[in-house]
Amino acid sequence: MSILSHSVAGYLDHASWIRRMFEAGGQLKARYGADNVYDFSLGNPDLPAPSAVAHGLRAFAAHAGEPFAFGYMPNGGFAWAREKLAAHLSKEQGVPLKADQVILGCGAAGVLNAFLRAVIDPGEEMLAFAPYFVEYGFYVANHGGSLRAVMSHKDDFRPDLAALEAAIGPKTRVVLINSPNNPTGVIYSREDLTALAELLENKSQEYGRPIWLVADEPYRFLAYDGVEVPSVLPLYPYAVVVSSFSKCLSLPGERVGYAAVSPRLPEAEELMAGLTLTNRILGFVNPPVVGQHLMAAALDSQVDLAVYAARRKAMAQVLTEAGYDFLMPAGAFYFFPKAPGGDDVAFVNALVEERVLAVPGSGFGCPGYFRLAFCVDEGVIRNAAEGFARALARIG
Ligand code: PLP
Predict the structure, then answer these.
(1) Is 3 buried (19+), middle (13-18) or exposed (0-12) by CB count in 10 A?
(2) Which residues are in the Aminotransferase class I/classII large domain (predicted)?
(3) Which of 93, 119, 268, 368 sits 20 to 30 Å CA-CA off 25?
(4) What CATH number is attached to the domain comprising 233?
């Protein structure tokens, strides 16, 4: 019998695909050498943080010997950091935001957990479009709720609003969207978001309680060819943006994330009080000191987008030449091609034979596809070309 809770023992028995690929990758790298393994399994940004981050770190270090330099602070972050973030997000989101409409936490993941703890009662549901970032299911289950996946339109991975409407019921407390999307790279259009906001207005009225719209957008900065990433904050009073500096500043290990609410939210003060408390009682306590200093120093910077854009082109060329069926990602750093032969797990295993690591779509609630993360050097993409071609020739 396990010493762990039933749920955690169960999770461990069904280790995530990303974790399985990570382990398979470790074995392959030990056997063939890291240079001979083409690892597209992890979304760990490999670009260096912009130079403003190192400057911020040095400036902070000059004061690191002072009392309380690393002390506790208000649970939602330093007041000055919230001011700066609010000014930055006002520009980015196109709505006027004050410091008390934003809150800092421990990465988008920590803030999502704080939010769900604040609004979900046991037995309630969060809806998200599949394919989706697999952690969402764990986050909502942490707070006694459950994730209900609604399949996106299969031809273009746009949100299927009719399917969403059919899935919303009295237990629906949150609808979560992720645009630019992990794993598809799709960016939701203004028309789709406006229609989604309208649907949620109507459904909230029908059930007599607001349904939250959470936009998880750590890839907002990464939109190619000038495609617009519309903000949900002006569209719906119960909209909340959750994001972080993990990708735009390549700071995922430093855990700086935040939530920003619509300026039209009538109960903003109550929600912020809730988030301040849940940030504390979930054990995050407060966002990291150093991370907030780095954020403030680098708010006007971002990693070099041109590098991601060049890799996207290179990957598209490799996949096209090999004969894969895929949509060009409009944003983020993933491709989500169709699995040749239809069985995503079998195909990802065929790629492993070629020392190419990918993640089956099943890991994102969408069998029949596989995900490739291009947070790798362009050379890795080009060197994997033969492996991609051989795997497809064998299975496709
Ligand atoms: N949401 C999505 C869609 C992600 O891909 C990730 C990380 O990969 C996160 C949230 C979590 O990001 P953070 O490092 O800010 O917790």
Answers:
(1) exposed
(2) 37-386
(3) 368
(4) 3.40.640.10
Report phi then psi at 342, rounded to 5. 95, -25
Mutate to test the pocket of ligand 1, among 134, 138, 181, 182 (most ligand atoms within 8 A of CB): 182
Bridge pairing between strands 172-177 and 125-130: parallel
Residue 27 CA, ligand 1 centroid: distance in Å:
26
Give the per-residue pLDDT at 396: 67
Ligand 1 nearest atom to the CA of residue 108, by list position: 15
275 plus 373 within the same structural domain = no
CA of 45 to the centre of ligand 1 (A): 11
Instruction: Output the ligand 1 site: residues, CB below 6 A.
Output: 43, 107-109, 133, 178, 182, 216, 218, 244, 246, 252, 257
CATH code, 371: 3.90.1150.10
Is the complex ipTM higher than 0.90?
yes
**Count of domains observed in the chain:** 2
Q: What is the pLDDT of residues 145-168, one digit of tens each?
A: 999 999 999 889 999 999 999 999
Task: Identify which has the larger pLDDT, 33 or 373.
Answer: 373
